[in-house]
Amino acid sequence: MQKNDPYAALRIKEFNIFLLLRFALVFGWSMQFIVIEWQVYTLTKEPIYLGLIGLMEIIPAFTMALFAGHIVDQKEKRNLLALCIAAFSLISLGLFLLTWDKVVGDWSTQSILYGIYALVFFGGFLRSFFGPTIFSLIALIVPKKIYPNAATWSSSTWKAATVLGALFGGFLIDWIGVAMTLCTVFILVALSFIITFQIQKKPILNPNIGESVKESLKVGLKFVFSDKAILGALSLDMIAVLFGGAVALLSVFAQDILHVGSKGFGILNASISIGSILTMFITTYLPVSKNAGKKLLISIFGFGVCIIIFGMSKLFWLSVVALFFSGVTDGVSMVIRQTILQLKTPDHMRGRVASVNSMFVGSSNELGAFESGVAAKYLGGAARAVIFGGIMTLLTVVAIGTKNKTLRNLDLTKDIEEHESETN
């Protein structure tokens, strides 16, 4: 196998099955996310209710994250993932029923909202298990020397599914309606459950099976907070996503600022992910391991600039371009962060480290959605909220880049060479 083979991970059959599984799952999940946002805003016409969607998901996702990481490190990964997908299919079915007129035709708006928020809350609970399980499973499918390549393809697949999910979600709202779109999501989740069993069960590499939850979490947290590169990357992405994300307010921009309807809403969502997927595909040919720290800082600074431009724009095409380049810069930062985590995390701690990652970055998406909704209400509109978030992102990059010398000077080429020598 060539040293810089951009298709190294794709030459492993089981990894391709894993990518197919992840694509089907994320494609459906992405559609579900934007359809629910569209439905909630259609019912209420208040940005604050969009923020509550994020809040309902982050509460269980954040509070359960560390415990979920402990469980993932103690259990077999394939079956655990199948269990999570089975539970997620019940959420998708419930959301379909809550938007189907034959079921909720005489329900009050408040009752429907309560039902949606309850299912989103349950989804947040499952979310705490999904990330650590998938992160750990990748490392059991591919050899260490191609972790960076596998992480790039996995992230690219996630983004590709997000692109098409967002695009089709917006279009399907217009073509077949909200309820039938969510029914489609349920079918996709069911298919992903079936695909899961094409992956073989994996060994449990944790030497401390039966370790107490308290001791397990203590060891995991100590590892993360003692590694300045990991801690710096997670902190940077957390605050950038928290303040710089405009996704939660895209339905407001589509309906009330740009006036482009559900199709435009889908295009706005998809433009972010298109930028990311193109960038991540390019990084399979042009690895970002050299001077990774500086590249991470530059990419997130560029992300903040793009978000500010989007917030100021009143033109649809300019908004699409700004979101596209926010996706480009986000794609670079995502590849670097995932590579850092894969290379620097011991096999027996992957669940716990991934859980901390979900607390820092994954949960900040939902908390960012809540922050965006609150900011839109109290800063005088969605545009001002997005601009404020972009400015906060820029300030965060400057602060962390100045104080964290380890992250600023991080170079991952030596880590990759060490893994290659171990394999050989």
TrEMBL record:
A GO term from the CC aspect: plasma membrane
UniProt key word Cell membrane: yes
Compartments in which it is found: Cell membrane
InterPro entries assigned to the protein according to its UniProt record, in alphabetical order: MFS (IPR011701), MFS_trans_sf (IPR036259)
Membrane topology: Multi-pass membrane protein
Keyword field contains Ligase: no
Stretches that traverse the bilayer: 15-36, 48-68, 80-100, 112-141, 153-173, 179-199, 230-254, 266-288, 300-325, 381-400
GO molecular function: transmembrane transporter activity
Pfam families: MFS_1 (PF07690)
Superkingdom field: Bacteria
Entry keyword set: Cell membrane, Membrane, Transmembrane, Transmembrane helix, Transport
Predominant cellular place of this UniProt entry's protein: membrane
Protein name: Putative MFS family arabinose efflux permease
Organism of derivation: Olleya aquimaris
